[in-house]
Amino acid sequence: MRKILFLLVACVLAGAGNVYQVKGQVKIGHINSNDLLMAMPERDSALNILEEQRQSILRQSEELSVEYDRKLDLYLQQRDSLTPLVIQTKEDELTDFQERIRTFESAAQQELQNKQASLFQPIIDKAQSAIKAVALEKGFTYILDVGSGAVLFFPEEETYDILPLVKAKLGIQ
After folding, report:
1. pTM recorded for the entire structure
2. Is 125 exposed, middle or buried (0-12, 13-18, 19+ CB in 10 A)?
3. Is the pLDDT of residue 24 over 70?
4. Residues 94-146: pLDDT tens digits?
5. Which residues contact 160 (CB under 8 A, 6 or more apart)?
6. Angle separating helix axes 41-78 and 84-138, nearest 10 degrees
7. Angle, helices 163-170/84-138, rounded to nearest 10 degrees
8. CA of 170: how far to CAs of 73, 74, 161, 167, in Å?
């Protein structure tokens, strides 16, 4: 959807360029938002928190796998001496345990995705606010994000890379 919107804006700008030149100068800037986000120090702390949670989940998943393996080994050792009813019960328990492991892993993946979203949304919002502030302060009409891949072509000599200005606004070197 964003790509379509950017392409639409680019087409409108290309087609209506003469109209804008009559009314006033269009000032177009560009930024690679990926580079900006990579430079923001908040990103590193968010990644560390996310990695800690991922490691915790991996440890819990490993514990469940070890417990399952232990139960399976015990079952296999005793199987020959068990009655058919007990065998069926033990196999059902093992199947249920496998399902619980799959449910845990699925829920853990969803939890990690939610945590990532909650950690990165404030960083993205801060970057967008800084981009908007720079655009307003410097009189840009449009800012194109070349990091999203939505801009297929832009003449670099006719646009302004505002990444240094936004970094300065955020106090990033």
Report:
1. 0.68
2. exposed
3. no
4. 999 999 999 999 999 999 999 999 999 999 999 989 998 998 898 888 888 88
5. 27, 28, 29, 30, 138, 140
6. 170
7. 100
8. 57, 59, 16, 5
CB 39 within 8 A of CB 154: no
Q: Which two tokens stand for residue 115?
A: 């945590």
Strand order of the β-sheet with 142-145 is: 142-145, 28-31, 160-161
- CA-to-CA separations, 22 to 17, 25, 58, 63, 154, in angstroms, rounded: 9, 8, 61, 70, 22
Mean per-residue pLDDT over the chain, rounded: 84
Burial label, 64 (beta-carbon count in 10 A; 0-12, 13-18, 19+) = middle
Domains and CATH numbers, the chain: 2-170 (3.30.910.20)
pLDDT at 173: 81
Handedness of CA 150, 154, 158, 164 (dihedral sign): positive
Enter the tokens of residue 135: 């655009």
The pLDDT-based confidence of 18 (bands split at 50, 70, 90) is: very low
